[in-house]
Amino acid sequence: MASPALAPTPAPVTRDVRIEPPAVAMVWTGVGRSHETVAVPGVVLGEGETLVQIELATVCGSDVHTVRGDRAAPVPLVLGHEYVGRVTDVADGVRAVDGARVNIGDRVVWSIMASCRECDRCLRGLPHKCRSIQKYGHERIQPRWELTGGFSTHAHLRAGTAIVRVGESLPAEVLAPAACGSATAWSALARADEIVDVDDATVLVLGAGLIGLTVCAMARDRGAKVVVADPDPARRALAARFGAAQVADPTDPRALGAALAATGSAEYQVVVEASGAPRAVAAAVDAVGVGGVVLLVGSVFPTEPLALDPERLVRGLVTVRGVHNYTPRDLDGAIGYLRDHAAAHPFDELVSARYPLAQIDRALAAAEAGAAVRVAVDPRDARRRR
């Protein structure tokens, strides 16, 4: 008996989308080299994909680490993974995190990654560690996918990207960092909540960068007592404006204890390490109280190994958790938080320098200098001048 003929596999649904004027992407080709300008006249939009015109991008610390050579990256690539933009084209059936259809004209923030949603990690609730993950601002550009990062006029979003519609009310300076820093801050507190109720906790935050300041505001708005430690006096002053009950200089060995005493609490139940400095990581483990949780967020670049006292962790019932990126729910939660609470804190002041897209190398140098919590890259000038 003859075997039945197999039905042919349907060809992927694709559509050519012309971009007029052509998109502009700033391409990084290696340490010590200036960015190169690449024009992209169009994309091939596949099933589940979206084309977004970028309104504003911000420079994350990991972008600085990459161009400085602190971490390996495939080249050529388009850096940038903090952004907000507007949908200019979209395949049928693309849905936002809340389940609503994504439409042309929607103002959106999208996740740092596209996940397959089918592998064992995705099915375990770890889409940010997908076996076939594609990360914006981290992937080598390739034919038919050149608009891979935020330092461009447009982004080509792959299927499996978490998209959140953000409305028109919040400034771009508040929204762009949500795609990395703000969502990671939300994720850190969500992971802490699985061990300790953050609402009633005394929280220590080490590092007053964007993640640390956002953790401070989020925890404070939930009722926690928050202490923020940073060696920079200007950052400590800023932390007070984000709701810190106490601030401390971590270079003073007595400062963390004195700040804790000033809160009236007996111990820190939650410690968030947001700087990545090895001394701060060691201080985080030393500072946490019995039954507490340490969230390591800042260690996203190679450093020397640290000595660890396992007895301290065992007898103290201490949980140490690594937090890297976030889930779609975390991104949605962070946007919801900003929508409801951003006006109560100076989030709009965190982006204190802005450069046109053509000056991306100057923007990265300014970010490395560290005076601004976030440096913005504005792509609109590139489209006006073409």
TrEMBL record:
Cofactor or coenzyme needed: Zn(2+)
Keyword check for Metal-binding: yes
Broad EC category: oxidoreductase
UniProt-listed Enzyme Commission number(s): 1.1.1.1
All residue ranges annotated as the Alcohol dehydrogenase-like N-terminal domain in the record: 46-161
Organism: Microbacterium marinilacus
Pfam families: ADH_N, ADH_zinc_N
NCBIfam families assigned to the protein according to its UniProt record, in alphabetical order: HpnZ_proposed
Keywords from the UniProt entry: Metal-binding, NAD, Oxidoreductase, Zinc
Residues annotated as domain Alcohol dehydrogenase-like C-terminal: 211-335
PANTHER family membership: ALCOHOL DEHYDROGENASE 1-RELATED (PTHR42940)
Family according to the record: Belongs to the zinc-containing alcohol dehydrogenase family.
Protein's name according to its UniProt entry: alcohol dehydrogenase
